[in-house]
Design brief:
Layout (H helix, E strand, L loop, with lengths): L2 E4 L5 E4 L2 H28 L3 H11 L7 E2 H8 L3 H13 L3 E6 L2 E9 L1 H23 L4 H24 L2
Length: 166
């Protein structure tokens, strides 16, 4: 329940309830953990976290081949310009190749190169080590399982809500 208490000059100020602080704790922990993970990827692999995310998407669990630039931008919630800049750098580094889509030269297909696969393997090892130390390390197995189950529930319900916002 949100309460009010007297503020300066006789105005009431809203005192946030515990949910605001709890949500802040969630966002704060996620932000710090993401920064640690990004720092380690840059320091140990020479890639930014966004590049790692692109490599992951392109690797696809089913090895489903190339992705369009638009699909990648949508999955990673980036503008087309932001996606283009990342892919340009990845092409320069030899991590991906990019070609016009057959039958539609406006669409660009992006695919991992052998160097990109090798970089992803390296980055996955580093990322797993970082997560073991900074995400799993401070928690018991039971705490981590409860947390992950709760986060999955939140993600599912939030996605349902976002599906109704058009």
């Amino acid at each position: 329940m949100t309460e009010t208490e007297p503020g300066e000059h006789g105005t009431d100020r809203v005192v946030p309830d515990d949910l605001v602080h709890e949500f802040g704790a969630l966002l704060g922990a996620a932000s710090v953990l993401e920064r640690i993970a990004g720092r380690e990827l840059e320091r140990r692999c020479g890639i930014r976290h966004a590049v790692f995310e692109v490599l992951l998407r392109l690797s696809g669990a089913a090895g489903d081949g190339p992705h369009t630039m638009g699909d990648l931008a949508g999955e990673l919630i980036l503008t087309s310009g932001g996606m283009t800049r990342i892919i340009d750098r990845m092409v320069e580094a030899g991590l991906v190749s990019r070609e016009p889509a057959p039958g539609d030269r406006r669409r660009q297909l992006v695919e991992l190169t052998d160097a990109g696969r090798a970089k992803l393997d390296e980055a996955l090892r580093v990322h797993a080590e970082t997560l073991r130390e900074h995400f799993a390390g401070p928690l018991t197995d039971d705490q981590r399982h409860v947390l992950v189950d709760a986060l999955r529930t939140l993600r599912t319900t939030a996605r349902k809500e976002l599906g109704t916002l058009h």
